[in-house]
Sequence to fold (118 residues):
Amino acid sequence: MNLKQELQNLNNRLDKCRNKLAAAKSRNDQPVVNQFKNEVAKLEKQRDSIKNIQSRQANDKGNDIKSMPFNRALTKAEQADMGKLKKSVKGLVVVHPMTAIGREMKIKEVTGFANKPF
Fold:
């Protein structure tokens, strides 16, 4: 199972536990409240761990991309015909600022990274 799916499953379980916790609090059922508080704490810890792993992976991938010797912002025409551009430049990696890697690299516009000038 990939990290994204695992994170989604944890968030779903966490949401269910929080709803059950709220219901138990409204009934004043203290043993059940304690049980769900422990469960919520455990799930939040797992979620934070997975988010940390995702962040580290994005950072590593961003560092690999940044280490490429040539990069520049792509023009609107190049962005419109991305297939042609990728065929003409072997090994081109395009990073969009709204993706996880783009946010991690703090880029402001669509940028291409390659091993040789393009």
